[in-house]
């Protein structure tokens, strides 16, 4: 399959993407891709180093005649989100991504593709390896762990880079030039509870919510996609209110930055209510599917009999938990008053685990306004503390404030219009880019973000548009040619 990818244009970029995707690179487990990138730089005879947290820096001198131009930092992250369909058998820790061409798109077989941010990494690799691309001095910065904490960007030390311009290649719309992004904070609610022996008159049922699209919890949070954890809680709440449903286990969602696609619960209900319960669940399932039919046509809500669980959640705790889950905001909290159509503040209820006397709910709260981010985080904190949870804030990272007077923004806007006959969309995004963090280490660096069309990031529907990658590659080459003088 990779051979088909390697024949695509521009071959220099797609070949590097195929090489990269052969290397397993989950967040927090980047040892192999760090070694791969270090070997790549050293084999080219370029100055290469790995810093104390695992970021890889490769430096390439300017091509002849470009020595007086400003040094450019080209930056992308090495890790990728690992998501797969339930029926897909795939070991992300051992296997390379299996890609194929589908018309104008490159996709993966039942898993995330890794175009986020592998296309950016491959772009930089192609430039570093090239012998005929004019460019100023380049400092390639490959960060780690962007997807689950941005610890690579946070751990980068000042003084390692000398570039005056940073090109972040992690935007997913090819007509967009990014000048700002949201910051984020992880909100985790935990508590323990007593388990009760399941009464003999109860029977077990398994409830599955699946078939949702999922997606990027920043870029797609406003699209009205279904959240498996919220849907599951709605079902559990209804079942308890009407049929005394009791919860034994819940396992919903996966990563904080992915809108949850699936959730499974094991419950117990009174045997005398079985027929009425199944009828009600079918009716409620149809109502929810009708509500979401436009965005989630493949949603499935399945209720099937299973072995009766031995233990169930304490009744008082269950009542408080399901009410807190209902009350906790998921989705858009506020739109920006200053930038049209930009989500300012949002929350993703990403992961819910209930098992063995422990509850854990994981959220990712984002905002381009620092005070609003903390306000929403405190709203969630109060919601879960009211039901006896301890709430922890972690992974706090800053947003990136737009600089509309940026010199490289003017250069890139003019180049884009010349190449494409239309003005680019200059915008801030609701995703968490590393520019805000990198700017704290290098406050004088002029930063911009751009990239090709990538759809469905953070889900098995992730795909990269071939024609858009070609358009983007031409843009990259022109930008490097037109970097201003020092």
TrEMBL record:
Enzyme category, top tier: hydrolase
GO cellular component: cytosol
GO biological process assignments: proteolysis
Signal sequence, start to end: none
Catalytic activity: Hydrolysis of dipeptides, preferentially hydrophobic dipeptides including prolyl amino acids
Molecular-function GO term, any one: metallodipeptidase activity
Protein family (similarity comment): Belongs to the peptidase M20C family.
Protein name (database record): Cytosol non-specific dipeptidase
Organism annotation: Allotamlana fucoidanivorans
Keyword annotations from UniProtKB, A to Z: Cobalt, Hydrolase, Metal-binding, Metalloprotease, Protease, Zinc
Classification via SUPFAM superfamilies: Zn-dependent exopeptidases (SSF53187)
Domain Peptidase M20 dimerisation intervals: 209-292
Cofactor: Zn(2+); Co(2+)
E.C. number: 3.4.13.18
